[in-house]
Amino acid sequence: MPALEATTVSEQARALAERAGLRIREELGVVWVRGDDRESWLNGQLTNDIRKLPAGAGLYSLAINVRGKIMADVWVLAKADELGLIVPKAVQTALIENLERYIIMEDVTLVVDADARVVSVLGPNAQTLVARVPTAVANAFNCDELGAGGVYIVSNATQAPALVDSLIAHGGELGAVFVSEAGHELARLRAGRPRFGHDFDDTTYPQEAGLKGALSFEKGCYLGQEVVCTLENRGRLTRKLCLIKGEPGVLATGAISGTELLAGDGQVCGRLTSGMIDPDDARSVALGFVKRAHAVAGELLHAASTAWCVERSLDDSD
After folding, report:
1. What residues contact residue 114 under an 8 Å CB cut-off, 6+ apart?
2. What is the pTM of this model?
3. What are the angstrom distances between the C-alpha of 114 and each of 161, 196, 269?
4. Domain 4-190: CATH class, spelled out
5. Secondary-structure class of domain 237-318 per CATH
6. Model confidence at 216, in pLDDT bands (50, 70, 90)?
7. How far apart are CA 22 and CA 69, in angstroms?
8. Exposed, middle or buried, 278 (CB in 10 Å: 0-12/13-18/19+)?
9. pLDDT tens, 168-183?
């Protein structure tokens, strides 16, 4: 396995945004959806439209409950004879149990691939790099997790480390590096990409978390659709997830999550959900929920007696 000491956290985050960064995603599980009715059935369970998804493609979607709250975020992987779901392991069992309740007469089977490991290759050079490694191509799916391009490769516990080594060996001039958890976290925070279980959970509506890209308003019915569509057409969000930055040196990385945000009048107007100190400028970069009236770029807030500024709302519909 390439040494993590080869690059700093800041360089790793930059590679994810500008070149290519690799990581074995131990927090992600793989579930295969099989059977003749797999596409039509799964399309009725998830928020995005997976119909006619070409083989080798990945599509970001959500599994929501009848109240419109998020049970999990998933990447749907398309293969010729089956579909895959990349799911946070923390909620994988609960999600499968819920989905299986809706298999009535359909020819559908959900199979947990306990030995599977997801290798993410993220950045503008990801597809070029993966194409150079034959052992990666057959199980590669386009999944743009951070907004700069990306590929998920489904491997297994035994082969994943060697696969990463091979990718690194073929990615020298492409600037490919192995990325630590901290490097990946910094990149996603800079990009304003929320993470399930940290920035949103089963108390959150998709629009609150800025996840409209995972919603389809044109396909047929799916579980929780009525609530989502009502909120979109006639509702009004009371809070929004925002990218927020703090003044230099503010808060230790481990103390950011859960910190209350205060408006100029001292009233609580939100809370931070995840964040860390950006080593490039010593400022804290974070995500957090902010009341609608304050969720605007340039809004000055306070947390732990220090100044914070809203960079932007993740929901840009206003």
Report:
1. none
2. 0.92
3. 17, 21, 42
4. alpha beta
5. mainly beta
6. very high
7. 31
8. buried
9. 999 988 999 999 999 9
